[in-house]
Amino acid sequence: MRIGILGTGNMAGALGGRWERAGHEVRCGGRGAFAEAAAFGEVVLVAVPSHAALDVVAAAGPLDGRVLIDCSNPLVPGRVALHTAGGPSMAERIAAAAPGARVVKAFNLASSEVWRSAPPLVDGVPLGVPVCGDDPAAVATVGRLVEDLGCAPVPGGGLDRAGLLEATAAYLIGLWFAGVDARTVVPPLASDNARPTLNSRPEDGSGRPATARRDRP
Ligand SMILES: NC(=O)c1ccc[n+]([C@@H]2O[C@H](COP(=O)([O-])OP(=O)(O)OC[C@H]3O[C@@H](n4cnc5c(N)ncnc54)[C@H](OP(=O)(O)O)[C@@H]3O)[C@@H](O)[C@H]2O)c1
Fold it and tell me: Do residues 174 and 140 both lie within one domain?
């Protein structure tokens, strides 16, 4: 697959390097070369700070039909807060700025150092990567790129859930800076007595399986 990356920094190097080693053709573009990288890619990763993302997407030129991956975390510098708070998520803003593109949110929950590890494992288990998007084919494409890193794609719902991923990242980064291991805050599924059954289905649009709704506040 041809992957264009808008940006030449940490995430571009980490993800682009791993995808190249998995056999993909990768072209990164920095300032002045965003359009070239975008034109190259069937898939385009936006890997610039969120405050620059909309301008960079505009500078990238037409993105119609492209799978456009947003990995950004729209953090307020120096604070555990989102500068998008109270409005659309960063992924939705990028989708509005590139109306023909098929935007997918992914890769924002782990640091570039994690993406550089081959493969990223947590206690020997492949890292799960939530993938949010409205276009099933685009989500499937990003899922394959997740697998190419040695990770496991986690269906994350539509792009309307991207804001939850962005808020989750902000909270996890706050824990990380406080020296708290997130695994002590989010226990493994096997330890949860309210574990949903395979037949449980969200019935009320809450996104929570019936079992979980019954047993937990
Ligand atoms: N780093 C992580 O661990 C991590 C993890 C998850 C998600 N993310 C997200 O990934 C994205 C990229 O992060 P990163 O750490 O890879 O960033 P980075 O290393 O700082 O690289 C940023 C890239 O964007 C370019 N850039 C910066 N400001 C720009 C502007 N105003 N206009 C145009 N281009 C600009 C930089 O160009 P110059 O070199 O010319 O300045 C560079 O190519 C961010 O949205 C971040 O929230 C990062």
Answer: yes
